[in-house]
Amino acid sequence: MHDKIAVVTGGSRGIGKAIVRALAREGYQVAFSYVRDEGAAGALRDEIEDLGVRCLAAQCDVSQADSIAAFFEQVEQAFGRIDVLVNNAGITRDGLLATLSPADIALVIQTNLVGTLLCCQKVLPSMMRQRSGCIVNLSSVAAQKPGKGQSNYAAAKGGVEALTRALAVELAPRNIRVNAVAPGIVNTEMSTALIGSQEQDIQARLLIKRYAEPEEIAEAVLFLAERGQYLTGEVLSVNGGLKMP
Q1: What is the tens place of the pLDDT at every residue in 143-190?
Q2: 210: left (phi > 0), else alpha (psi -120 to 50), else beta?
Q3: d(CA 10, CA 15)
Q4: I want to staple 94 with a disulfide (CB 3.0 to 4.6 A). Which of 115, 116, 149, 218 is the partner?
Q5: Strands (E), the chain
Q6: Is-catalytic flag, 34?
Q7: Please, which pLDDT band fits residue 244 given cuts at 50, 70 and 90?
Q8: How far is it, in rounded angstroms, from Cα 239 to Cα 65?
């Protein structure tokens, strides 16, 4: 075990939960946020602590600047430093742009893009003092190969990828690396709800004829955080060879 501290937003389920587990097994002490399911968050915290790893689980809504600030204040008080940030928290509100409500457009952009930007901002004082750090943002295959009804989500994740590149340039002099992972279809509750009647079409577009498991995305995040020391400003696609229509 080493003394590095990793922070994962949206860490209580799905991809985020797998990332928390992967980092803990690598020896990181971990703080993660959740929005509503305190029971699931507490169970994961107990699981991580049973590994002999310090773990903090705290509520945070990344669509709210005040909630983000309060979460990172708790992390700083508990651990005193932050070495790795994984911006995993995100939402979808899919629908054709002609019928999307302004509220659904704004919430997706605010949560997925602005929330990611603000979380990055909050870790920079710690990382810049240390002159070291790593940020991994979760993008999506939708940023480059969007499906119908994903205009708001694709715009947000495209912004995440642009933010990743811009921050990599800005932070390289301080020895802080910034990369992103862009998953394809992952076997999670959120993805299952979105696939619906499109499953046959999606399967036809996959070169690897199955959906990813959350642990496979977590391994990509762990690679960028722990082993990809000569990578910055990159977007690592983990999508099973998803083809355009």
Answers
A1: 998 888 999 999 999 999 999 999 999 999 999 999 999 999 998 877
A2: beta
A3: 9
A4: 149
A5: 5-8, 29-34, 55-59, 84-87, 133-138, 176-183, 235-238
A6: no
A7: low
A8: 31
Four-point Cα dihedral 19, 24, 25, 26, nearest 10: 90
Q: Read off the tokens for 1.
A: 């075990």
User: The whole model's pTM is what?
Assistant: 0.94
Q: What share of the chain is helix, strand, coil (3-state, %, to 5)?
A: 50, 15, 30
Question: Strand pairing of 84-87 and 55-59?
Answer: unpaired
- Rounded CA-CA distance 111/102 in Å is 14
Say whether pLDDT at 196 is over 70. no
Residues contacting residue 200 through CB under 8 Å, at least 6 positions apart: none
- Strands of 235-238's sheet in order across: 55-59, 29-34, 5-8, 84-87, 133-138, 176-183, 235-238
Q: Write down the residue that tokens 């790893």 correspond to.
A: 53
Among 28, 34, 153, 211, the active-site one is: 153
Half-sphere exposure of 188 (CA within 13 A, CB side): 20
Q: At which residue do the structure tokens 């932070």 appear?
A: 171
Number of Cβ atoms within 10 Å of the Cβ of 59: 16
Question: Helix or strand or coil: residue 167?
Answer: helix
